Amino acid sequence: MKKIAIAITLLSTMLLAKVDINSASLEELTTIKGIGKTKAKAIIEYRKANCFKSVDELANVKGLGEKSIAKIRDDISATGCKNQ
């Protein structure tokens, strides 16, 4: 029973964790509601040349506007900048 409780806690933590747009894989990005493969690829291409200093910089990625960003803001973060 204790193992089940631990497993549920770990799973909940993983599901509630924010996806870092500076380091997430294509697969991780596509777990975000509203982000399919095309937008995920665009995010990855953009970050190859630019590090996301904030979530708001997603507006610079083709196909992502303010409304889209507002919908996913609670699910993403912009930390771990590796390009700078």
Classify the beta-strand content into a percent band: under 5%
> Which shape, going by the Cα principal axes?
globular
How large is the radius of gyration?
Answer: 14 Å
In terms of structural class, how would the helical and strand content be classed? Answer: mainly alpha
Spans where pLDDT lies below 50 across 5 or more residues: none
CATH architecture: Orthogonal Bundle
Number of helices: 4
SSE pattern, N- to C-terminal: HEHHHE
Mean pLDDT across all amino acids: 85
Helix content: 40-55%
Say which CATH homologous superfamily is assigned. Answer: AF1531-like domain
Strand order, main sheet: write it out. 1-2
Broad CATH class: Mainly Alpha
At the third CATH level, what is the topology name? DNA polymerase, domain 1
Count of discrete structural domains:
1
Count of distinct strands: 2
The biggest sheet, with number of strands, parallel, antiparallel or mixed sense and barrel status, is: 2 strands, parallel
| Ends distance | 46 Å
Summary, kept brief:
The chain is mainly α.
Task: Identify the notable features of this structure and list them briefly.
84 residues, mainly alpha, DNA polymerase, domain 1, 4 helices, 2 strands
